[in-house]
Design brief:
The complex is a heterodimer of chains A (391) and B (128). Chain A is α/β, with parallel strands linked by helices and 391 residues long. In chain A, 36% of the residues lie in helices and 18% in strands. In chain B, strand 5 and strand 6 form a beta hairpin. Chain B starts with 6 loop residues before the first helix and ends with a strand. The longest helix of chain B has 10 residues. The chains are: A alpha/beta (391), B mainly beta (128). The complex binds zinc ion.
Chain lengths: 391, 128
């Protein structure tokens, strides 16, 4: 880990942008990505010609960096198309930091776009296609509704082992909505109660439709440069203090313990790189594809003991006004979820550390943790970010 | 078994004749499922096929809610076989909502249109 400790704070996020959250009929994945990318580069005070590193991933196109490079007119010296599902854009951080440190490149653009909600190629068609290009012969014959059923199975086990309740799961959705009500960019902002969640349409027991993330359109992008270069750029730099990624399984049926994710490893490694501990973190952005995720990640990342995530969220701790602000933009449950959410968790963490959170700003936030999850509790990537004071 | 095919095809062909087989590693002695070309525990490529006793316990459970036109509600469970491996399956002799974690089950092979699939039936004694 000594080498990784040496990378602590060596790079900073200097530009972020989102575009087209919610409904963007008439836009393609690439157009949403391109608008976000240009806005993030402009936010960084750079031009697209300054970008010499590219990270991107797509839920559909397996060679996605190629069309993105072509479309944006880039000539990158560093290219990372690693696709780990929704955690990808957080997992792109550490290799990009190493590329910047080595001199391979100097300004890395990480970008994503998806018209998942309004696209003519629907989720049903994508699901059919995936059966052929990415087969799961030991799960598909049983007709699980993936990904929801995988998270439902994890929730069932958590409830069995620790007495976690549907009400506590609902409290995660209610807290996310309360934050979304403070965010003008959030897709769903109507009031939401515990009763509303409990009475909503059941999808895969014990998860109802309000336990599941949104399906939206949207794009997001950020720009990473060396800490040295960040000083001369216009926006307040947000330094990357730690990042780590872990995969223990792909399929939910191959997960050894459904109540413990590889976020235990990614979190511990990221904290070790940062030389920090959970109590040092001011604001959390956790990939809440389903309500059980927030509970699992609070536990696995060390913010509460294993099994106590239910009472933890029930106490109001993570909602606006609580001691531990979680998913301040409204999360994947109420803000945005265009297929993969990881980049949006990271962007919200950056906005909080810049003090750009508006009504949802966590006052005085100097440290943030952004955590990405991919596929069916399969990949986990944790980033710890800080302002200049934390270097 | 023949060496001229992968373990996935062999396993399915056996299922199609009604036989459910799992692997046992001769290197570390652990059972392996789903079928692998090499043991994920010790990397040995020497894996024997064995017939599991069939007994298992429901480890996690969900009911997928679907409209009748889409096939209606269906149980999806994760089952731990007594040999120590876990697999996805359906508890076929109970209503979808009646399956509980801890339920003892027995494996059986359903052959439909020539294709075998492992299913489970709840056995007396109910949930542990
Ligand atoms: Zn072995």
């Amino acid at each position: 880990m000594s080498t990784l400790r040496g990378l602590r704070g060596s790079a900073a996020i200097v530009g972020v942008a989102t575009f087209g959250n919610g409904l963007s009929p008439g836009f393609t994945d690439m157009e949403l990505l391109a608008r976000s990318a240009h806005a993030a580069v402009e936010d960084a005070g750079l031009r697209m010609s300054d970008i010499d590193g590219l990270c991107t991933a797509s839920g559909g196109a397996s060679m996605w960096p190629l069309p993105v490079i072509e479309y944006l007119g880039l000539n990158p010296r560093y290219i990372d198309g690693t696709m780990l599902g929704g955690s990808s854009f957080i997992a792109h951080l550490l290799p990009a930091m190493q590329a910047i440190r080595s001199g391979q490149c100097s300004a890395v653009l990480v970008c994503y776009g998806s018209a998942q909600r309004t696209s003519t190629v629907g989720r049903r068609e994508m699901g059919q296609l995936r059966r052929f290009v990415d087969p799961q012969p030991y799960e598909y014959p049983y007709e699980p509704m993936l990904p929801a059923s995988a998270y439902a199975l994890a929730a069932s086990r958590h409830m069995h082992e620790f007495g976690t309740t549907r009400e506590q799961l609902a409290d995660v959705a209610v807290a996310a909505r309360a934050w979304a009500r403070l965010n003008p960019d959030a897709f769903m902002r109507a009031p939401l109660t515990r009763e509303d969640v409990l009475k909503s349409r059941m999808v895969s027991e014990p998860l109802s439709v309000r336990d599941c993330c949104l399906v939206t359109d949207g794009g997001g992008a950020y720009v990473l440069v060396s800490a040295e270069r960040a000083k001369s750029l216009p926006k307040k730099p947000v330094y990357v203090l730690g990042n780590a990624t872990a995969v223990w399984n792909r399929q939910i049926s191959s997960m050894r313990d459904l109540t413990a994710t590889s976020a235990k490893q990614s979190g511990a490694d990221a904290f070790a790189m940062a030389g920090m501990k959970p109590s040092d973190i001011d604001v959390l952005e956790l990939y809440d594809a389903f309500t059980i995720n927030t509970i699992l990640f609070l536990e696995d990342l060390g913010f509460c003991p294993k099994g106590e995530g239910g009472p933890f969220v029930e106490s109001g701790m993570i909602a606006p006004g609580g001691k531990l602000p979680v998913n301040t933009n409204g999360g994947g449950l109420s803000c945005t979820h265009p297929g993969m959410y990881g980049i949006f968790a990271l962007i919200e963490a950056v906005r909080q550390l810049r003090g750009e959170g508006g009504d949802r700003q966590v006052i005085g936030a100097m440290t943030a943790l952004a955590h990405g999850n991919g596929s069916t509790l399969s990949s986990q990537s944790t980033a710890i970010l800080g302002t200049a004071e934390t270097l | 078994m023949t060496e001229s095919q992968g373990v996935e095809a062999f396993h399915q062909l056996e299922l199609n004749t009604g036989r459910f087989l799992i692997q046992r590693c001769t290197g570390c002695g652990k059972h392996v499922y789903y079928p692998r070309e090499a043991c994920p525990h010790c990397d040995s490529t020497s894996l024997d096929w064995i017939s599991p006793k069939g007994g298992g316990t429901v480890y996690a459970v969900t009911t997928v809610r679907r409209k009748p036109a889409e096939g209606g509600d269906i149980n999806v469970s994760l089952v731990d076989l007594d040999e120590g491996v876990r697999l996805m399956g359906r508890i076929d002799n109970l209503a979808p909502g009646a399956v509980s974690i801890g339920q003892r089950v027995n494996a059986r092979v359903q052959v439909k249109d020539g294709k075998g699939l492992v299913l489970f039936d709840a056995v007396d004694g109910g949930a542990l």
